[in-house]
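note to self: the first set is below, dont mix up w the second
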Amino acid sequence: MRSARFDCPSVRLELGQLLKQARPSGWLGLALAAALHFSLTTVKGITQQEKAVKPLTTQFVKRAPRLTKPLEMKKRPQPKRRTIRRKMVSIEARASGRQGLSGERPAHTIRGLARPTAHLTRKLAVEESAAEPHAMAQQILGVKEVKGSMDLSAEMLDINALDTGKYHAIIIQDPNDKRNIRGFFHLVRAYSVSAKPDRNWGQGGPYPWPKAIPNLVETINKYTNIRTDLGTSVTFDKRELLATPFVFVNCHWYFRLTPAEAQNLGRYFLVGGFLLADDSFRFKGGTSDLALRGMIIDGMREAGFEYKKDWDFERLPNSHAIYHCFFDFPDGPPVGHDGDIGDSYHPVYTYYPYLEGVHIGERLTAIMSNKEYGACWAGIGSGNRGCKDTLRQLQFGVNIVIFALTQEGSITYSVMDMVR
């Protein structure tokens, strides 16, 4: 029997029954707490993830090396190309007989070309022209003989390297040996636009004897060291005429230079050009004789020299240097087809058995020939007294060319001065 001494109100409590009743509530509370804890943990993690601070990092930056002086890139300036136009200035003077002016000649100023000058012994009066400036030619110290001024002082000169088309001729000559001569020459034929083809011989073109100049070129190459070829043909009004040192003109019929051709021919005479006019009718007063003389007269008038007052056609003596500058012709010019005049085939005409020269100062600038050398050079023989084998006539042609190239005051002489 259980004692009631220790009985209290709690004795009647059933702990097991209470535990059984409280267990569901406890599990429910635990579940709620766990759910609450889980939900709080998740929300806090999202908040921390959004507000997380980027961790500190170290960044290494490689800097470019510093120069002691700043490097400046500058574009090298290129010069602008400018087109330069050369203008040819004509300087003219008209002759007058009112007063004399000794030792002076009018001249044209030709830009881009050498300007030979002349000291004259004849007297000429000059009138001032208000329309354009005037220039007076200076002194040329020269004679009609070749003095060997184109000597071998340029022996080391590479002549072939200078043959670029700029110069028509460059010549080097030994003053102690007239045969020791070398260089190059591009021979240019000139004609007037009014020259008509030959009607009797049917040659065509302005040259009665087309083979004359090619045969002369071949002869120059054969006997000399001057490398020669045949250049293009030009009319007298072309500027190219002013650069070639020698031109050959022959004709059968009458022609007359145009004003532009006459003016350009006058300039050609003044700058040192040399003209060989060959009459293919070979008698005084014939059509070609009048045409060629009129051509020279017109050119000299445009140069400022009046015919019969300031100059004239003068006979070249047999002692002239043109007969001895390469081959020797002690008796003067060789006979051409003029030797046939007076035979049974040719009527008797008045002709010139000599050559006539035209001078500006002491410089020989033109030759007038009535010997029809063009036919001889073309290989056309003639009668008993004319040119038979044509060799001597071709050799004299070589003399004329060499004299024209080496004469003091010529175009080639001036070119050699610039080259030196």
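second set (the one i keep forgetting abt)
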Amino acid sequence: MRALVIGPILCCLLAGPAVADEHARVAQGYRGGRPFTLSVVEINGRDVELSTARAFQAMQRAAAGKGITLRIRSGFRTQARQTELYRAWRRGAGHPAARPGYSNHQAGRALDLVLDPQAYAWLQAHARAHGFYRTVRSEPWHWEYLGASQGGAPERLARPSKPRQR
């Protein structure tokens, strides 16, 4: 919330996202193995790309209005963090992880959420209206911000899980 002083009157502006652009910082993301620059902000201790953060917070407020709590376990990942997760997975620990430079977490659009059955059911019913889609069938916690649908679903949705080569 921002305050605007107009003469002796103090007005509170509630329009707009709760994530303030002035708190964004520049980070190096990756898409298809190629580096690019993006803006990230922090939401409850997790880094999230700015447009993904705005959409998530709108969705989070809508869920909270129905008594549902949505929390982020993992958002934007640096190259170093993705390398750690990938190496751990290759050693047999942790969940499958994309090669460094190829994770949608590094592109700024993927979030891993903390889910209980109620939150998952709410997401299944309402996430698309906020531009979020479940894109990895074997990972119910993994949601990606692909933008609000204009009458049709994006092409890349929860694809069948295939065993990944280690």
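remember for set 2: The domain at 22-145 is CATH 3.30.1380.10 (Muramoyl-pentapeptide Carboxypeptidase; domain 2).
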